[in-house]
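Open question from group meeting: does this chain pack into something compact, or does most of it stay loose? Before anyone orders reagents, we agreed to write out a predicted structure and look at it together. Recording both the input and the output here so the notebook holds the full record.
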Amino acid sequence: MSSTLFRTKNVEQSIQDTEEPEHALKKSLSALDLTVFGVGVIIGTGIFVLTGTAAKNTAGPAVSLSFVIAGAVCALAALCYAEFASTVPVAGSAYTFSYASLGELPAWIIGWDLVLELALGTAVVAVGWSGYIHSLLDNWGWHLPEALGGRDGATGFGFDILAAALVLLLTAILVVGMKVSARVTSVVVGIKVAVVLIVIIAGAFFVKGANYDPFIPEEQPVAAGGSLKAPLVQLIFGWAPSHFGVMGIFTAASVVFFAFIGFDVVATAAEETRNPQRDVPRGILGSLVICTALYVAVSIVVTGMQKYSSLSVEAPLADAFKATGHPWFAGLISFGAAVGLTTVCMILLLGQSRVFFAMSRDGLLPRFFSQTHPKYRTPYRSTILLGVVIAVVAGFTSLSELAELVNIGTLFAFAIVALSVIILRRTRPDLPRAFRTPLVPLVPVLSVLASLWLMLNLPAETWLRFAVWMLIGFVVYFLYGRSHSRLAPRGHPPAGESPRPPA
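Structure tokens returned:
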């Protein structure tokens, strides 16, 4: 039993699978395309919303340090992702990496986790995008019926038609091809980054030094509770996170971490990159550095424009400009947020479809979904299936309470990838590595510890929901995936396939 649960798919097999005509993806992306994808997915609601929440409630003006800490945690994970993506340039990201090092069951667990993380993330972002569009339409005097705006009308029925329509439109773009997706993303990311730079440059003229005093407000401990919504670290160790003070900076880092989610999606496009050994590490690390610098600059400016205690939680950047008597910038920021969320949604959907595609190609999910389009060479079946499902979820479901599942899923993936780097270094030291994570095993171990620490700062309720999803995953694996895996020994392989003995 244990030998089948932890059978590994070696790197050579993974790369060989990418050359099968019916399951091969088109290689069309460059390092610049990957960097744009990374910036496109990282810069989203985090920079426009979480700055105010973290500054007002936990860190004060020192929220800029919280962004640095969260960026450092991501950087540790990024170094591990970069080594794997350059060594195993195959679609699937952490799922594929785990399959090559930890074995089939751990790979299934992380793949199932990524399915939840990316699907839920796409739906959450689509709903957020819809909210910005509703706000802009209301400002222009155009009002959608409540029943089609995701708002419960008199009948109690609500369907967010804008969120669903966005997901379906982006699904069509992804089916047409990666290069088209990259071009659309480049234009939208250019607009989004321009808006962020305008905020930084224009806001710098309204900064007042007095607003930075005190830079680290006096610590105010949170009363220990033990409620279900308390952070898990409080329930286990009896330690309650702080409002403000030095510990408040670390608490805020757990909050603003959501703003960095997405850079790992770059690794899912490794199979569609012309020179993945060189370009994927550049795309991952380049996008993370750019976004961290922008986040720190924005947080410094917004806490200098308005006293942290007066910052808005819903729209801190826009409201800070209103407070200084410049409401025109508020409209520009809302427009930039709406445009920016478009690329976040598309790239999350891209990553989701590639993970699903990789799991299907390995037989852990039905092989039907691993067929690529005869013309566009994209995984159109899995993309369409997921696009329709996510569109329905985004249209009907209020997802605000589930958004933290995206955080815990991402951090879990970070920890698994870091462990995989250590294991593969020991089991396959002969593999050519175009990029090598420095200071192994120190950097991967630090990545695991940092990820676990942020996970412990998430509510216990989030852990329970995550456990339920994982339990469902175990049931699916043992009922279907284990026996249909391409590594499962069988006398008569499916039509069109050759026998695949376990590695």
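Observations to bring back to the group:
The radius of gyration is 23 Å.
The longest helix spans residues 104-139.
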